[in-house]
């Protein structure tokens, strides 16, 4: 079961600062689709090191979106990639889809 | 305090800037998405604190620290705790914040910086032994950095991709190698006596033919390491 993304951390940081909250949402709405596309580009071209790099970048977003279990899976997946494995790939891909759906709602 | 933020991710920079905005004495004067641009900036302007991401493509945070001749205080910000021990080798690195950074943890870090800034420089310690007694080792356990006094460590044992650090009160499992930890330990205190064991030389209770007793730990001595152990005993 994939944990659901949320803005709890961002809301806590923002407090009454509506501008920061808006800025954060803009950044994630802009960055995430690009990073997701980059990730799938590296996967389909079997660029393992580059895939691990973008997984490293994406996992930070999981953390910020309160997805602790997904973050842990991304840590494992990043290590797997560096060892030439990709057992966690399908679960990782599911997480990306979950986030993509979520950011359409914020 | 003037500060700058270096992180290749816009979201991470926005978060640190937001954290800084709640601290009246902090003034973010610039932010950079790469370390090279920051170096050029630092050549022209003095600042007090750098919030620095370690994991950046091309030129990493650690590379950046090594290039600075007279570095200001640096707080590392990262989601990867694997660099923690290496980071504390640099005197200028005063703290290590694991993302996502909470306001509470961030404020503690700023309090630490303020405290360090207000301290008068201490006289240098002349005695090597005193210097060893004052040293600590930070180990990374479940994304937490735990400070150990070197003097309290009894035995370090290799366990595959991990090491077990045994003290009189606790035992810690750390994801690193014996070779790496050995580089961090002063030779005055520590000696490798087997391919899987490093001991605190000062904690030896007794020695038998093929083993050493350290507190309640019986540690094997390998044939190849035995001469060095004997040589060190002669020094006592």
Describe the structure concisely for a colleague:
The complex is a heterodimer of chains A (106) and B (236). With 106 residues, chain A is mainly α. Chain A has helices at residues 8-14, 18-44, 48-64, 68-82, 89-103.
Q: What distinguishing features does this structure have?
A:
heterodimer; A: 106 residues; mainly alpha; 5 helices; 0% strand; elongated; B: 236 residues; alpha/beta; Rossmann fold; OB fold (Dihydrolipoamide Acetyltransferase, E2P); 2 domains; five-stranded parallel β-sheet; five-stranded antiparallel β-sheet; HPt domain-containing protein (chain A)
Strand content of chain B is 25-35%
What is the overall pLDDT average of chain A?
95
Biggest sheet character of chain B:
5 strands, parallel
Kindly report how far apart the N and C termini of chain A lie.
22 Å
CATH architecture of the largest domain in chain B: 3-Layer(aba) Sandwich
Largest sheet of chain A: none
Radius of gyration of chain B: 21 Å
Which two protein chains have the largest interface (Cβ within 8 Å of the partner's Cβ), and how many residues from each?
A: A-B, 19 and 17 residues
Seen as an oligomer or otherwise, the chain set is heterodimer
Q: Regions of chain A with pLDDT < 50 over 5+ consecutive residues?
A: none
Q: What is the mean predicted local confidence, pLDDT of chain B?
A: 83
- Number of structural units classed as domains of chain B: 2
Strand order of the largest sheet of chain B: 2-1-3-4-5
- Enumerate how many helices of chain B there are, as a single number: 8
Order of helices and strands of chain A: HHHHH
CATH superfamily of the largest domain in chain B: Response regulator
Order of helices and strands of chain B: EHEHEHEHEHHEEEEEHEEEEEH
**Shape estimate of chain A:** elongated
Indicate the radius of gyration of chain A in whole angstroms.
Answer: 14 Å
Protein name (chain A): HPt domain-containing protein
InterPro entries (chain A): HPT_dom_sf
């Amino acid at each position: 079961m994939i944990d659901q993304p949320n803005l709890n951390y961002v809301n806590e940081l923002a407090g009454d600062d509506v501008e920061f909250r808006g800025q954060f949402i803009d950044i994630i709405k802009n960055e995430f689709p690009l990073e997701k596309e980059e990730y799938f580009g590296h996967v389909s071209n079997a660029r393992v090191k580059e895939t691990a790099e973008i997984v490293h970048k994406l996992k930070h977003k999981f953390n910020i979106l309160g997805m602790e279990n997904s973050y842990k899976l991304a840590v494992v997946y990043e290590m797997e990639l560096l060892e030439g494995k990709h057992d966690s790939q399908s679960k990782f891909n599911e997480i990306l889809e979950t986030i993509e759906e979520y950011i359409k709602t914020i | 305090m003037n500060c700058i933020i270096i992180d290749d991710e816009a979201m991470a920079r926005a978060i640190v800037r937001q954290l800084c905005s709640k601290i009246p004495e902090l003034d973010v004067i610039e932010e950079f998405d790469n370390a090279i641009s920051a170096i050029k900036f630092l050549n022209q302007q003095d600042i007090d604190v750098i919030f620095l991401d370690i994991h950046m493509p091309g030129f990493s945070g650690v590379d950046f620290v090594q290039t600075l001749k007279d570095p200001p205080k640096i707080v590392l910000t990262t989601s990867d705790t694997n660099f923690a021990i290496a980071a504390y080798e640099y005197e200028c690195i005063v703290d290590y914040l694991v993302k996502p950074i909470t306001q509470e943890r961030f404020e503690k870090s700023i309090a630490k910086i303020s405290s360090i800034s207000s301290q008068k420089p201490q006289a240098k310690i002349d005695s090597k032994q005193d210097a060893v007694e004052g040293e600590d080792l930070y180990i990374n356990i479940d994304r937490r950095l735990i400070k150990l006094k070197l003097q309290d460590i009894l035995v370090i044992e290799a366990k595959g991709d991990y090491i077990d650090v045994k003290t009189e009160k606790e035992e810690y499992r750390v994801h690193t190698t014996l070779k790496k930890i050995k580089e961090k330990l002063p030779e005055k205190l520590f000696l490798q006596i087997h391919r899987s064991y490093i001991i605190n030389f000062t904690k030896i209770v007794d020695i038998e033919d093929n083993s050493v007793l350290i507190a309640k730990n019986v540690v094997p001595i390998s044939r190849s390491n035995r001469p060095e152990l004997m040589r060190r005993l002669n020094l006592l």
